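Exam review. A common question shows you a sequence with its structure tokens and asks you to describe the fold in words. Practice with the pair below. Do the first one on your own.
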Amino acid sequence: MRVNKQKLVLVGNGMAGVRTLEELLKIDATLYDITVFGAEPHPNYNRIMLSPVLAGEQTLDEIVLNPWSWYEDNHITVHAGRKVVEVDRVKRIVRAVDAQGDVVEAPYDRLLLCTGSSPFMLPVPGKDLAGVIAYRDIADTLTMIDTARTHRHAVVIGGGLLGLEAANGLMLRGMTVTVVHVNAWLMDRQLDRVAGDLLRKSLEERGLKFRLGAHTQELVGNEDGRVKAIRFKDGSEEMADLVVMAVGIRPNVGLAESMRLHCDRGIVVTDTLQTVTDARIYAVGECAAHRGIAYGLVAPLFEQAKVAANHLAEMGYGRYVGSLTSTKLKVTGIDLFSAGDFMGGEGCEEIVMNDPFGGVYKKLVIKDDKLVGACLYGDTVDGSWYFRLLREGLSVAQIRDQLMFGESIPHDAGQPHA
């Protein structure tokens, strides 16, 4: 046992922060006395699995990643349901408050900020009405489940992955659901128009309704102060007892800014995940901006966690150089995959296979004999192979004719060629 251990404080009891602790404990479990602050009253849970909970496919207990016993077994002091409101960087003290306003303090030698992100709420009249919520945490999920028991009409604003998952879950719980999306096709960040239209058609067949290219003007309330309709800029309305906003997220940088840490699209960090302002302070996850990018997907956050843990363990040789991300999703049972520059453009060639009756669409984008983008709908079995070709920049000149048929190519697929 070490005496005079250093003190590590984690602000944010979510997936990125706790994964960093797991990686650190693997390397050296004796280096720090660890204290964790979490604003939610729950242990670390898998936020990605909130959609199956909403859909009734899993329970909240089943999505917990680290039960309370894990913190106890690893001698971690945890303050759940306490939000950090101040950090004194001179005295190196973290201050948090609970729901009753009681203050808890913890000193630190190293501080790990994993404050995540907040859902963006459209700044329209009526956004503060009862029945208007975001979709971000357990509390939001429980509100949606409870509302579905007593109300009929739901509107989800946002046709991205989160919005579609919310819409599907509410539909499975018996609500009539309309998805409102400002752009011309669904999931326009992950899919091109053809794939987006195939997705819409499939979801319409299951019972969802859509209003695409629709601009929300205001949310209309009833005499009790609850939302009753959404009004669009063209003057039309859609009935709504519940409005779920899923229109994007923003890094939570309020605490960091109050600490006078440099923020720009997130808390600015170096390749070691240390903040550029204060080397004692690290930031990992959706709140961190690395080389101008704040990542919202799990894979980059876990890559960051590994590097941050390496440095916190005083190994000091890891570097995070950024992530090339791919999106492999299952939206209400429909397989989707996209990576790289799947929209193509000048100087690019496109290989396309479109089978609308079979529900399969594949688009590969090639530039300078290299695969630079892929968009797959309905059949994603070769997604990881395409991603490897894309990530490693391998020449596809020799296999171009067979590229669409996947990795089961008999010869030297994806090898570098002179």
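Now try the second one, then compare your answer with the model answer below.
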Amino acid sequence: MNVRRSAAALAAVGVLAAAAPATAAGPSPSPKVALPSGLYGTSDPTYDGVWRQSLTLIAQRTAGYEPAAKAVDWLAGQQCANGAFAAFRAAPDRACDSKVMVDTNSTAAAVQALKAVGGHGAAVGKAVDWLKSVQNKDGGWGYSPGGASDTNSTSVVIGALAAVGTDPADVHQAGRSPYDLLAAMSVPCGQVGGGGLAYQPDKKGTLYANADAGAAGVLGALGKGFVTTAGKAPATSACVTAKHLTPAQIADNAGANLASVVARRGHLTSTLPGTMDQPDYGNTADTVVALAADGRVGQALQTYTWLEHNATRWAEQSGPAAYAQLILAAHAVGAQPGDFGGTSLVRSLNQLGPAPSMPSAGHETKKSGKSDGGSAFGVWWFVGVCLVAGIGIGFLLSGRKKSQL
């Protein structure tokens, strides 16, 4: 659910180098294309325009703001006649042809965004129909239509289905649902990284736990999209073995594995060439959301605290999608995005594009007279402290290869 996840998918089709805005230290100094006035951010949108715009609109709505009509219209205008979205169309007035590389990730993100802002039922319906039409026989989706299914793409599509009120379990291809794909990507408990989720099997068919896929897959298995709050605590922190894993078991196994990984340093580390052992801020933010959704509030709060102390500079350099990820992480743990280590995430995001309308009274958060500020932690901080201090949080500690972290 982040620009890094999009970059991972792009890597699978051989264009990772071109996706630098998703992984580099800062935005592109000179965009290759003219920036539309309704688009958020200043970096080249060629590979992430729809993705970052979608996350921005979702984050603004989550914070209670009404996105600017210009921003919403830009996103809606990116849709092809068949319902699909590409990462970016520089000339949306031209009909989509075979040269336009539509993808499931951009389409599913746009569905969630347009559903959140409202008023685009027809566009959302066409996009969902297109997603259903390109479902693979294993029940999942790949980044590109017809491409091999992967955990990340399947999970973001699940989020789109859930957003429109469709039970993902009812969306089948050859008798298999997206939950069957996630079960197939679950690393067996007895292996290294057991319980975690793989992005895809390797060339030999072996599954290796991947934190990025784990964060996406937890939400997917729970039938959730980008926006979530703390869920019910898992019954056990042990890896559950079953012949046919239920979606809840997939989520809990992956959540336990993800918690054990992030607990080692308080954050995830990058596995991309040239950035090994550096903090992976984007996937760490996604991990906060996933852990909270799986009811692992104590670890989610600890990891959010690390982000609050370390991720401000990253967000400043990375742009709107990064701010959106942090806002969604704050929402998941009940924190105030108006006071993120002294920075207002919402204000910083809103300044990167067309100004949204002020939040309604029902969405304002007030503390010490501030509508978008206040304590860095809400009620979930208290809950987390009680969990940690009173009963403790048991994490499934499992050895994993350094390259899998």
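Model answer, second protein: The chain has a mean pLDDT of 85. The chain has one domain: 3-404. Full marks require stating both points clearly.
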